[in-house]
């Protein structure tokens, strides 16, 4: 049953449980469900979420009502279960109806909230024994199911490879656009990773590059990075990856004081050339509201001088050295040479990447790269899951 | 004097003060300056910031040295003032020299750090009496000084207007590109604000739009928004702006409990259509590390159902109603009709914008808009200030 209650969303909310009983209190309606759960719904909350065509514009599915235009002492004159729906008559005259599937999905009793948090996707940590998820170019380009599997692996593992990509410049954009538009940077929409005499980043030299995230110099580091191999005839230049979340997690256990220092002391990252000058102050490890590890920001070659108090400076150096040392430990590292037609796609805010030095005299080496933000990945997953 | 010490930056560091005396301690060198200030520099910090050509690649000005490759018990065998520079001989053989201008600019004694924080640009709050900073299109397009003045007003006031912009579609992109590339979204690189029958956002209707920020549904709201008037023959549709920082600041004083609720309880914003589904959970008011108001996230028509505990729900509604009510108070509002050839450019993370309903039957109305991120604004300012 698709009721008016679902109008403000493109998702559907299957009925988990029937409404059993409703009771009107002073500032809320308490709903008892057929499975015994009791959910409070404040009058303000219910009125705010009225899905009727007067409150939500049906074309855009966006709210037109502003709750501030409703009496703050609004009360329910009557509330009842009517043909399975919660039906409420408000003081002042408005009438609202709520679908039980939608209502259960948005209930905010402790149990319902805990259930929703538990259902959120969690990162699957990995180490050197990681079984790399590999996907086929044709499948990803043609089959929405294969596309979804790839995107879920990206979201949950943060490191994937696609094989069979045409070795033409720009081919990676076709893959990227299966997700969404590309995020531009000062290095372009697509960037060419080649050794250049006038390099504006160490990435464009033949040097060894230590494990890093790209663009830590921006407020929002790019969510996804693509690296596509067109030619790789040079000696050296192997790709190295570590799961930054796994390292941070190990550090949290092995040296909690160092872990906290990297969470709490902000560090400046800088990238500057003749035309730009980006600076960003942020901690190396970011936690989310629940204290879970949410992001790693790291690139030694883009780091500015540490700026913290005299007291904290030795601790910050100890923590930084420890983290860098851990990125070098074999237990965490996946090392693999990228061949023409292969494409790395990884979570740039979690999976640190590096490359060994290569010898430009020994043969050509040409990778192309681009970025997409995490918003786009999560949006595409939700659309594919509808 | 441009010494090797400045190699890792494009900025120059004028000499503020001579080095007067240096003293080697166990884990640091204590520098006394000619004005009496004493700055500690830990051995690890100094070695990490050695600017020599072996430690920093001179072409990219990026560090090649990784501090983890240096002994963690490194010590200074000798430190002296040599021709005005700090010259250090390290155990193990390396020698480093530091320019006194650079050293003073990065000193981390309490006084030097406090000086740097005090010198950071601060938002200039405004209300209905705001003297709108207006800039001329030709000047901004041709004169780097006028460009810089405009960008500083954008950074510090968060609301500006440019006049004399050609009324051709796409003309705003020329102005935007004086800063940098445009940030694309699902609404395109440029978006057309017109009343549409198949609107995928209330922005594309003729409705009244309440005060809001754009794309609160993304992890990083766009830093700058451009709105360019090509045609405005319709009745109504005036632009309204408020300084969200000024309102948050007033709320902090007038109702601290409501202010805290908006800082601490995250709210979900949603934007969904047939091809996308963006969801972002974040508080309405974000504070920076020092507790200063850093960002406002608000769009009633893009807000999802509140999801917080039963206890907190009444407080959240009270705080939300209060904030919205304040955005409607005359004391905060700037109301102005935009004429053809005029362009609003404002800080989308601070300055909330709205429009009155307009009557599409009374005449044509066509605005174009685009976004640029704050990183790009700050980078352009730093380059222009070199």
Automatic annotation (TrEMBL), chains A, B:
<comment type="similarity">
    <text>Belongs to the gamma-BBH/TMLD family.</text>
</comment>
<keyword id="KW-0479">Metal-binding</keyword>
<protein>
    <submittedName>
        <fullName>Gamma-butyrobetaine dioxygenase</fullName>
    </submittedName>
</protein>
<dbReference type="InterPro" id="IPR050411">
    <property type="entry name" value="AlphaKG_dependent_hydroxylases"/>
</dbReference>
<dbReference type="GO" id="GO:0005506">
    <property type="term" value="F:iron ion binding"/>
</dbReference>
<dbReference type="InterPro" id="IPR042098">
    <property type="entry name" value="TauD-like_sf"/>
</dbReference>
<feature type="domain" description="Gamma-butyrobetaine hydroxylase-like N-terminal">
    <location>
        <begin position="26"/>
        <end position="104"/>
    </location>
</feature>
<dbReference type="Pfam" id="PF02668">
    <property type="entry name" value="TauD"/>
</dbReference>
<keyword id="KW-0408">Iron</keyword>
<dbReference type="InterPro" id="IPR012775">
    <property type="entry name" value="GBBH-like"/>
</dbReference>
<dbReference type="InterPro" id="IPR003819">
    <property type="entry name" value="TauD/TfdA-like"/>
</dbReference>
<dbReference type="Pfam" id="PF06155">
    <property type="entry name" value="GBBH-like_N"/>
</dbReference>
<keyword id="KW-0560">Oxidoreductase</keyword>
<keyword id="KW-0223">Dioxygenase</keyword>
<feature type="domain" description="TauD/TfdA-like">
    <location>
        <begin position="134"/>
        <end position="371"/>
    </location>
</feature>
<dbReference type="InterPro" id="IPR010376">
    <property type="entry name" value="GBBH-like_N"/>
</dbReference>
<dbReference type="InterPro" id="IPR038492">
    <property type="entry name" value="GBBH-like_N_sf"/>
</dbReference>
<dbReference type="GO" id="GO:0045329">
    <property type="term" value="P:carnitine biosynthetic process"/>
</dbReference>
<dbReference type="GO" id="GO:0016706">
    <property type="term" value="F:2-oxoglutarate-dependent dioxygenase activity"/>
</dbReference>
